[in-house]
TrEMBL record:
Lineage: Bacteria, Pseudomonadati, Bacteroidota, Bacteroidia, Bacteroidales
Protein name in UniProt: Histidinol-phosphate aminotransferase
Annotated family: Belongs to the class-II pyridoxal-phosphate-dependent aminotransferase family. Histidinol-phosphate aminotransferase subfamily.
Superkingdom: Bacteria
Species in which this protein is naturally found: Bacteroides cellulosilyticus CL02T12C19
Gene3D superfamilies: Aspartate Aminotransferase, domain 1, Type I PLP-dependent aspartate aminotransferase-like (Major domain)
Length: 346
């Protein structure tokens, strides 16, 4: 790995961050706060939230078994995705490499930041080759994006290839684990110490059932977390979100129940899909959704819209011709979907 200074944009490396009132006084003994121009009325919404979200990070660290200093929290994973571009990629100069197909936000953030985005096609089993990604990289490649389980294909990426990439790539490997709660493979969180160039993204939006509160997590070395923290908006995670997230962390057992249930529903729904005449191929999934190749994705998508059922048409995505991406819902929602599809005339 290159040094973190070599990987970081020079202006960001030198940047002195904005210091908020809540940064400058961190004690807990004061009772009169006249430092932040807040309104003294309308408790508890009148106060600025903790800019570093320490209480939330401390609770999270117990569940994730990662020290708070290794955690960055943002306004969804989308914030973390954008921040790694702004921290490490010089616009018009540096580039990133990513698997294809994958989550669309990596490319959108690359385009917004004017950073070249190099795509490397997955194979017919939706797996990647570390060698191919490395061959697409050059001196100016700062980041490689992986997503496991991958969106929209639903499968885990091979652990041995991820490890090879972590060992051999000179820049940072961004591993998006938005769906890892639904997978039987273990998270790379426990390997953070082994790989200083690893950045793991997770989110409250999927297994945690909290897409509405917008909370994303990045886990990495204290040095990388320090850089992301210094360029974020000072109060990037609002108080309502921090409070709701802490409540969710106290209900961890509930999330485990949801995940178990959704995995059972996934197996069931995939089986029922494979028996439909319109199905060409159901791809195995390690997530809370799956990809299915059908006889005519556009027609079937539009038919389902007419029935009031929305799935995702992935027909125009690489390797996903005539594919629909189906999120696993409740038993009742899944039944409605299958019933509707049984009424579709090929
Ligand atoms: C849904 C999803 C996310 C979550 O994004 P948030 O901004 O945290 O809601 C991240 N990565 C992938 C691959 C996803 O599919």
């Amino acid at each position: 790995m290159k040094t973190l200074q070599e990987l970081t944009r020079p202006n960001i490396w030198k940047l002195k961050p904005y210091s908020s009132a809540r940064d400058e006084y961190k004690g807990v003994t004061a009772s009169v706060f006249l430092d932040a121009n807040e309104n003294p009325y309308n408790l508890p919404h009148n106060r600025y939230p903790d800019p570093m979200q320490w209480e939330l990070k401390t609770e999270l660290s117990k569940i994730k078994k990662v020290a708070p200093e290794h955690i960055f929290l943002g306004n969804g994973s989308d914030e973390a995705i954008d921040l790694v571009f702004r921290a490490f990629c010089e616009p018009g100069v540096d580039n990133v490499v990513a698997i294809d197909p994958t989550y669309g936000m990596y490319q959108v953030c690359a385009d917004v930041n004017n950073v070249e985005y190099r795509k490397v096609l997955l194979d017919e089993h939706f797996q990647f080759s570390a060698d191919k990604l490395l061959a697409a990289a050059d001196e100016r490649t700062k980041l490689i994006f992986l997503c496991s389980p991958n969106n929209p294909t639903g499968n885990d990426l091979l652990r041995s290839e991820i490890e090879k990439l972590l060992r051999e790539f000179e820049g940072l490997v961004i591993l998006d684990e938005a769906y890892s709660d639904f997978s039987e493979s273990s998270s790379f969180l426990l390997d953070l110490d082994k790989y200083p160039n690893l950045v793991v993204f997770q989110t409250f939006s999927k297994a945690w059932g909290c897409a509405a509160i917008r909370l994303g997590m990045a886990f990495a070395s204290t040095e990388i977390i320090g850089i992301l923290s210094k360029i974020k908006y000072p109060y990037n995670v609002n108080q309502l979100t921090q409070k709701q997230a802490i409540e969710m962390l106290h209900k961890y057992y509930e999330i485990e129940r949801w995940v178990k249930r959704l995995k059972e529903e996934r197996e069931d729904l995939e089986k029922r899909f494979s028996e439909l005449p319109l199905t060409v191929e159901v791809f195995p999934s390690d997530a809370n959704f799956f990809l299915v190749r059908v006889t005519d994705a556009v027609k079937i998508y539009n038919y389902l819209v007419g029935e009031g059922i929305i799935v995702r048409n992935r027909n125009s995505i690489s390797l996903c011709g005539n594919c629909l991406r189906v999120t696993v819902g409740t038993r009742m929602e899944n039944d409605k979907l299958i019933e509707a599809l049984q009424g579709f005339i090929i």
